[in-house]
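=== RUN LOG ===
request id: a7f3
mode: sequence -> structure
chains: 1
length: 159
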Amino acid sequence: MLDLYLLRIIDQKGEEIYKYKYAPLRTHIEGYNDFAKKSGIPLSSTSNDAAATGLISRGYISLENIRYGYSLFLPQECSKEQIAYLMERIPYFRKLEEKNRLFNVGIYQEEPVYYNHKKYRDLSIEEDINSKNENRERRFIADVLLEELNKQLEKTHRR
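=== RESULT ===
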């Protein structure tokens, strides 16, 4: 479903406005740099994390195809359209995890988070912490993401 592209960028309308095709030796940072050049949006070229954080701080979603799964970076508050885009893909993300493929989700925060010192929450780390504190099995990150999206959707209905 998503494997043809190394990097996808989704705008506030829930539309994929940029796709960087997968090819041997291509890197995510090259895709971010290409997007920055084409869109005129300045992004840090120091790392994938820095470029992704720059995008999500502006309300975009970044989806990186990594060798063994995906890294998904989200704005602090997704639009209804972005939520719909992600909800549609939850079953696919869950299948990845069921096949022991990696699925990471970062959600933008203005200040660095205490557990990773980055400007995004990491749902994998949070689920590890919560499952240990609550003495329960760790859930799939796709399910944690679904829970997060439902909370955000509730907030959009109250606005």
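=== NOTES ===
The two ends are 33 Å apart (CA to CA).
The beta strands are 5-10, 16-21, 61-66, 69-74, 102-108, 120-122.
=== END ===
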